[in-house]
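Appendix B. Raw example, untouched.
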Amino acid sequence: MSDTAKHLIEEVIPAVPTRQWVLSMPYAYRFLLARNPEFLRKALAIFHRSINRHYENKAIIHKLKNPKTGAITVVQRFGGALNLNVHFHTIYIDGVYYENDHGDEAFFEIIPSHEEVIQLNGTLKKSLTRLLEKFEHEDHACNDQSDFQAQSVQNRDEKFQLPLKIGKIWDPPFREFVGKRCSYDDGFSLHASVKILAHQRAELERLCRYILRGPIAKERITYEGTGKVRLRLKTPYTDGTTHLQFSPDQFIKRIIALIPPPRQNLIRYVGIFGARHKKRFEITSLARPKKVKTKKKVYRTPWSELLKYVFKYELSNCDYCGTTLTLVATITSQHVCQKILNHLGSLTNEVIVRSPRAPPEDDYFDEVAGDF
């Protein structure tokens, strides 16, 4: 999560305004999205094509030459209750790159209105409904994992019963989510309310980490003495539910249902960020620092550098004298490690507790910097 977010900030996304677009669909679509890679590919293409067309049409109105946009989409497969919920989190540059009078690529900001988001959601609903009609009679394969997925999509167990809710107070009426630049239409939900300004690079990296996060944190799981597994919800339900309870088998089935098909990429690069786009290098080079690199770029950031980057904790120098550390040996024996730590007078069972970060939606809405 942290390494990929660092890569996107330093190597891919230039310093321009960006917007998060989130699309989720009804249950029937989620099941096909989870188990049919071709359906997911075509649904994602419809989503990208609709948003791209919106930005490019607005650019044509402003008479911009050769407009082009770009996005990074993360296919998330999980919901807050550890249920199977395939949906798309996409970071779009909030505008287009176009060719100016000097032949250079310049950026032009385009801000979608609330009414345009509603119209886009209606367009997506029509296109995705036609796509579902083509696929719903073709996919008949059935196996144990597809059974788990069907149960998990509807947040139910093997008997299609809801998991035990802990803390429930009452049964509230259904209420559609209402918000600025958000649209809900018969199960199709399109959100575009989170915007990051060009200079807010730290906030953009935080958003990247949020959409790249794993399905669950260990702190939310409790194994009870009765043999049940209790899952603490990240956000309590409106009926008061704070935890869900599962048997060990039910909990394992939930985990199995979240496993993606083999060789399926969950991160997709679109438009100018695509690998084959002829302007990709020119645009993405704007995100890279101007300093001269002195060492060869590695595919993954070394752990010591990544810990320093994320937690601001220096592992390369000694805490006492400041001398640069060098690797002498790798010791994996627990007994030897305890002897060394005891000799140094260090605590062998000390654990540094770090609180998790809140989702970016809590802090970075359009209202932060006005009407964007």
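End of appendix B.
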